Amino acid sequence: FGIASDENFVITTTNRKEITEDNFSELVQDGVTLYLLQSVDQTLLSATKERIDFLPHYDTLVKSGMYEYYASEGQNPLPFALAELIDNSLSATSRNTGIRSIQIKLLFDDSQGKPAVAVIDNGRGMTSKQLNNWAVYRLSKFTRQGDFESDHSGYVRPLPVPRSLNSDISYFGVGGKQAVFFVGQSARMISKPADSQDVHELVLSKEDF
């Protein structure tokens, strides 16, 4: 750092708390931003940047669907929630060379577990990374780049057709999660990529959160 051997310095947090032997383990964690200063109250000579990593509070996922669909005043919101779930299947089967099969099942047999809504399709499936990315809040399926492998890589937006035949609903990467937690309290996604023998399963549940 270019500090002379006879020069005094301090290391502080961005809250100007000096790092000492006593508080080191408490204040210094992975990802924390530190200042190297001549004194605790030294004026910063230039603007600083701090990287912040965070996860949304679980209520953001669990309760957002309620807020979203209750806002549909005067309308029955359930069809809108189901449409969001079917949208995933519409996109997954958009390039099928054969029949596009999308089934909606309402399961109420207690012997098979809790009541559930199942949407089943014969689409191309998702890799584990693509399935992981589906769970990321506000990660649009059209803008996933860099470290994110799109769950619709190579996707071509359909020509203008009636919305019921299109797959352009969940543009902002939010709708699917909102729909799930409006209809129920957990989501279980099971997917097998067309070119792989691996079957991947993702579970998001209020209980686990």
Automatic annotation (TrEMBL):
GO biological process: double-strand break repair
Pfam families cross-referenced by the UniProt entry: HATPase_c_3
SUPFAM superfamilies in UniProt: ATPase domain of HSP90 chaperone/DNA topoisomerase II/histidine kinase (SSF55874)
InterPro entries in the record: HATPase_C_sf, SMCHD1
Protein name: SMHD1 protein
